[in-house]
Amino acid sequence: MVKESEIRPGAFKALLTGYGMLGPLDYAHFPASSVPELSLAGDKPFTLFTTVCFKNVQGGAILTQEDGFRLGIMDGLLYVAAVDWCAVKFSEYTVVKFTTDHWYELAIVYDGSLLSVYLNGEKKDTFRCNPPKGKASKAELLIGHRLDAYFKTFRLFGKALSDREISQLSSSAGITPEDSIAW
């Protein structure tokens, strides 16, 4: 159970209304042109690091770029679906079956061919992907698409971070927010 004291000042709820009368609302949309160094189309390395607490693990996306990339959760399992270059549903035996009301530090690192997932600073699984040549997306990025969750941190990097750097992020030492593209 997440206690009010565990929610850092400034933590944001990804889905504000649930699926009620007002319909689903996502937390943040930002145009790809606002972060030109970042590409989720498989053509460039990137890293996502977030601290997240799911309020519902049935479905939703942590990060989406329309018609190109989706990092999400479905039935408690983490998945990546990237059009034309990578599709992975991470096993509960290698990563974890996510539950509600628990904080997780999650990182996805793509180095141009390998996609790795980290949980609480520890590398859990790696998959080889087949990136397309010359494909880039100009679609906006969405954080928390139809996702019922809280985030303490959400950081995007336009490079593949090393195991050591992920560990530093997890321990909150060494990498300042200004080193990331978005935080």
Q: Which properties best describe this structure?
A:
183 residues; mainly beta; six-stranded antiparallel sheet; 39% strand; 1 helix; globular
State the low-pLDDT regions, or none: 8-23
β-strand number: 12
* Overall pLDDT confidence: 77
* Dominant shape: globular
Helix count equals 1
- The proportion of strand residues reads 35-45%
* N-to-C order of helices and strands: EEEEEEEEEEEEH
**Global structural class:** mainly beta
Query: In what order do the strands lie side by side in the largest sheet?
Result: 1-12-3-8-9-10
Q: Report the span from N to C terminus.
A: 25 Å
Helix proportion of residues, in percent?
A: under 10%
Biggest β-sheet: count, sense, barrel? 6 strands, antiparallel
Q: If you compute it from the alpha carbons, what radius of gyration comes out, rounded to the nearest whole angstrom?
A: 15 Å
Give structural notes:
The protein contains 1 helix and 12 strands. With 183 residues, the chain is mainly beta. It has a 6-stranded antiparallel β-sheet. A 6-stranded antiparallel β-sheet has the order 2-11-4-5-6-7, with no helix packed on it. It is globular, with a radius of gyration of 15 Å. The two termini are 25 Å apart. The relative contact order is 0.26.
In short:
The chain has 183 residues and is mostly beta strands. It has one helix at residues 163-170; strands spanning 12-13, 28-30, 46-54, 59-65, 69-74, 77-82, 86-89, 103-110, 114-119, 122-128, 141-145, 149-157.
Fold blueprint:
Blueprint: E1 12-13, E2 28-30, E3 46-54, E4 59-65, E5 69-74, E6 77-82, E7 86-89, E8 103-110, E9 114-119, E10 122-128, E11 141-145, E12 149-157, H1 163-170
